[in-house]
Structure formats: structure tokens, C-alpha cells
Amino acid sequence: MNNQPYLINLPKILDERGNLSFFEHDGQLPFKIARTYWIYDVPGGEVRGGHAFKEQQEFIVALSGAFDVVLHDGEKEIKFNLNRSYYGLYVPNRIWRSLENFSTNSLALIVSDKQYSEDDYIRDFDNFKK
Ligand code: TYD
């Protein structure tokens, strides 16, 4: 499991008044959340990300709409299409990742186990592969 990305299905509390899903550490997430951010209002055709993290792990959910998370482990690329709010993608550290192909009004929620630090980014793909 270590250093492998994987999809995490979230609980779904179905209700005629509207459904509810959640995640928390120990229950669904393999790490404690230190930071939450989100990506929204993405113009058609734009790509976010394009980097890896030395230490930081993340969990990404398409709260609304759909987009692709494209991952690269240095050897091969793997693409996940996220399009429901009741599952998400765990992305370990040291995986190159891009978010692309955003649908109109899509909303990407991202939680991570570290506070923001530019020092944790690897922004050069050749560097990453080394
Ligand atoms: P970046 O992580 O490069 O965006 P993405 O990978 O989604 O394309 O961040 C873009 C800018 O936002 C960068 O200048 C740093 C800033 N930022 C913060 O200040 N705090 C944060 O939690 C994040 C994720 C980014």
C-alpha cells in the first residue's frame, strides 16, 4: 500500500432530504489533515498541478463536476477520472500529479497532511525522475 495511489470510497448517508458523505482520519483517511484547499473556476482546457511533493500526502475529491488526476511515479502514468463526491483519490508523496480536463463548475477539494511549504514541492519533472 505504501507509496501507491488508491481510490477511497466514502460513506454515503442516503436521505430523501439530500445525501451526506464524509471522511476523517482513522476512518477513511490514512493521514491526519493539516490543510484543506480547493480549486474552482478553472477555465476550459487549463491544467493545475504539474509537480510532486517530497513529503506531503493528499486526498482529492471532486465535490462537484469532474476532472482527471494524472499521476506519474517516474516510470508510468496512470489517470483517474473523479466525478462523484462520495469517493476520492489518495495520492502519496513522491508522485508527480496534474489535474486536468475540468468540467464546467467543477470543484476539486484537496486535503493534505502538511501545511503549505514551497520547499516541499518538486516542480521539475526531470528532477523528479532522478
Ligand atoms: P500550486 O500548488 O502550485 O497550485 P496547483 O498545483 O494547484 O496548480 O499553488 C499555486 C499558488 O498558490 C502558489 O503560489 C502557492 C499558493 N498556495 C498557497 O499559498 N497555499 C496553499 O495551500 C496552496 C495549495 C497554494
Jot down its keywords.
130 residues, 1 helix, 4% helix, 5-stranded antiparallel beta sheet, 12 strands, globular, 43% strand, single chain, binds thymidine-5'-diphosphate, mainly beta
Can you walk through the features of this model?
Strands 1-9-6-11-4 form a five-stranded antiparallel sheet, with no helix packed on it. A five-stranded antiparallel sheet has the order 8-7-10-5-12. The protein has 130 residues and is mostly beta strands. The chain has one helix and twelve strands, in the order ββββββββββββα. The protein is globular and about 50 Å long. Helix content is 4%, strand content 43%. The mean pLDDT is 96. A hairpin with a 6-residue loop joins β2 and β3. The longest helix has 5 residues, at 125-129. Thymidine-5'-diphosphate (TYD) binds at residues 35, 37, 39, 48-49, 51, 116. Residues 35, 37, 39, 48-49, 51, 116 line the site of thymidine-5'-diphosphate (TYD).
Short description:
With about 130 residues, the protein is mainly beta. The longest helix has 5 residues.
What is the fold's blueprint, element by element?
Blueprint: E1 6-9, E2 12-13, E3 20-21, E4 35-39, E5 48-53, E6 58-64, E7 67-72, E8 77-82, E9 87-91, E10 96-100, E11 107-112, E12 121-122, H1 125-129
Antiparallel strand pairs: 1-9, 2-3, 4-11, 5-10, 5-12, 6-9, 6-11, 7-8, 7-10
The structure holds thymidine-5'-diphosphate.
